[in-house]
Design a protein that fits this description.
Layout lengths: L1 E5 L3 H14 L11 H5 L13 E10 L2 E11 H7 L3 E9 L3 H17 L4 E4 L11 E4 L15 H8 L3 E11 L7 H13 L3 E2 L6 H7 L1 H12 L12 H12 L5 E5 L5 E9 L2 H7 L7 H10 L3 E9 L9 H14 L4 E4 L2 E2 L3 H6 L5 E13 L6
Parallel strand pairs: 4-5, 11-12
Antiparallel strand pairs: 1-2, 2-3, 3-4, 5-14, 6-14, 7-12, 7-13, 7-14, 8-9, 9-10, 10-11
């Protein structure tokens, strides 16, 4: 017998937060989320994204045994911007059982239908800083800190249930050269002088940068990503979650934050030290001892993940992204970083795909979201 229960109690919340650890117990490619973040998914005092979202979590039991979890999200801002009536599914993990798939996705459909929604799609998160997309290629590659791993059966079951393809991303592994690319360095110097740009990450801490330029940081983020699939402007208190996250895991040697002669933000780029090994070792728990390995990974990383690169709209076609790339590339080479991997890049985002054509790289993973009209899974 299959039974769905809404997450309401502290015990259920713990089961929700830790179920992926059981599902992927013997999987070397799975990287757990930070446990406290998972525990705070439905906590309005900790997860400020709930101010703009309605959310519910569900657990699935088969013959009394926990076999899956899922979250349903209604992003009010996204629905207002798109004019659609979407309910998102997120944090979706379960055993390979078509009936369990139906029960969990059906719970989200029902949640959406009760609130007047017409389409279910995902995996999407609360916003672009959340994990999104289902793995469809590269099942023998370890996930990054920012992405979820999925067994191959997930994509198969989504198709069987009649879900259609939606947004698609690729993820690349980059070869690290012995020396920075001469052409990039040359263009970087020329453009830095031409536009009279200063990189404040060389003199300010991450906290100082984000404190001084918070509003412009988010304006630039929207300028760069606002037109892309599923992007939702991060507003109000939800900004605090993102800023706290960046201030915790960012190393200034791997960021570039450009300010023009008028003291305005021109653009920025952020590479994140990989904390995957530390999270795997601690099973996502930072305390009491997990944070030590995390801090060590941040200070002296062996691998980096490309976080984001964003330019103000007036600098979109200026080429100043070369300044950002040159700075980060030089430092990672000097520091002996041995691995550089992108996080998901939309296949149809021509600008970001072209940006890296100069570098030697290969596609190692693909992922996508799925969509379906609400109806067939709801009783």
């Amino acid at each position: 017998m299959i039974e769905i229960k809404e997450v309401k109690t502290k015990k259920q919340l713990k089961e929700f937060a830790t179920f992926p650890l059981k599902l992927y117990k013997d999987c070397p490619y799975y990287v757990p989320s930070i446990r406290s973040d998972e525990m705070n998914t439905f906590n309005k005092k900790k997860n400020f994204s709930l101010k703009e979202n309605d959310a519910k979590g569900f657990l699935c039991y088969k013959d009394g045994k926990l076999v899956g979890r899922i979250a349903g999200l209604i992003n009010k801002v996204d629905n207002e911007l798109t004019g659609k009536k979407f309910v998102r599914f997120s944090r979706f993990e379960c055993i390979d059982d078509i009936e369990v798939f139906k029960a969990l996705l059906g719970a989200v459909e029902r949640f959406g239908k009760e609130n007047g929604m017409e389409i279910i799609h995902g995996p999407w998160g609360f916003n672009d800083t959340d994990r999104e997309g289902m793995l469809t290629y590269g099942f023998d590659k370890r996930s990054t800190y920012a992405t979820n791993y999925y067994y191959p059966y997930f994509a198969t079951r989504m198709v069987e249930l009649g879900f259609e393809d939606e947004s698609k991303w690729t993820e690349r592994n980059f070869a690290i050269p012995e020396e920075p690319y001469e052409r990039v360095v040359r263009i970087s110097k020329m453009l830095k002088n031409k536009y009279r740009l200063v990189d404040v990450s060389e003199t300010m801490s991450v906290k100082q940068i984000l404190s001084k330029y918070e509003d412009e940081f988010f304006e630039t983020l929207t300028d760069a990503y606002g037109h892309l699939d599923g992007y939702v402007p991060i507003v109000g208190e939800a900004r605090k979650n993102m800023l706290d996250q960046f201030a915790t895991i960012v190393n200034t040697r791997y960021i570039s934050f450009l300010i023009d002669e008028n003291g305005k933000v021109a653009g920025f780029g952020i590479c994140l030290p990989s904390i995957c090994d530390a999270l795997i070792k601690s099973k996502g728990k930072l305390f009491p001892f997990g944070f030590i390995s995390v801090l060590r990974s941040i200070k002296k990383p062996k691998e980096l993940e490309m976080g984001l690169i964003a330019l103000k709209k007036e600098y979109k076609n200026s080429g100043i992204n070369a300044i950002i790339i040159a700075k980060v590339l030089k430092n990672l080479i000097d520091d002996g970083v041995t691995g550089l991997e992108s996080n998901p890049m939309l296949e149809h985002n021509f600008h970001i795909q072209q940006m890296w054509k100069f570098a030697e790289s290969e596609v190692i993973k693909k992922r996508q979201t799925y969509k379906k009209e609400i109806g067939s899974l709801v009783d």
